[in-house]
Amino acid sequence: MRFRGRARKFGDHIDTDAILPGRYLTDWNRDPKSLGRHCFADFDPGFSSRVNPGDILVAGWNFGCGSSRQAAAAALKAAGISCLVAKSFARIFFRNAINIGLPAVECPDLVEEATEGDLLEVAVDEGLLVNVSTGHRYSAGAFPPVVLEILRQGGLVSYVRARLQAAER
How many domains, in total, are found in the chain? Predict the structure, then answer.
């Protein structure tokens, strides 16, 4: 799985309330895809209008800290973010991202070097990240095979459905 897009850069300790303010959580049940237009509504107004499908969010330490709000990860995906790269992720946020099929890769060196708008390429299967704008290459830890399969299936629900259907045959 390869992702290629422009970097959308944020700093350290961005919490789930900054990613998706709580007042938009009611949209989660009615229309999950609408969450994208509310992404960073208070923290960075206009973020969702600047994101192009496939962009890669780049962030500092402890991205997604705060509540265990799965809708925050869903809002990023609905806004068009294809992949997350951070120095580190809050553990629950990391798991929520994987569960909805949004790759979350830790690579502090790329985060240090990347600037807003750099063209990035992330090969999740290989643990390879490239800042195409600078030509620099980085390594990240490889995901276990089951996590890669969850991402390939588009998230945990799709993964489980596929497993159940295979078991029925």
Answer: 1
Could you state, in chain order, the average pLDDT of each consecutive group of 10 residues for the chain (169 residues)? 96 96 76 85 93 97 91 95 98 96 97 97 95 97 93 94 86
Residue 168 to residues 104, 146, 155, 156, 160, Cα–Cα distance (Å): 32, 20, 20, 18, 12
Q: pTM of the prediction?
A: 0.93
Contacts of 127 (CB under 8 A, 6+ apart): 105, 139, 140, 141, 142, 143
Q: Rounded to an integer, what distance in angstroms lies between the CA atom of residue 70 and that of residue 45?
A: 21
27: CATH: 3.20.19.10
Containing domain of residue 82, as a range? 2-168
54: left (phi > 0), else alpha (psi -120 to 50), else beta?
left
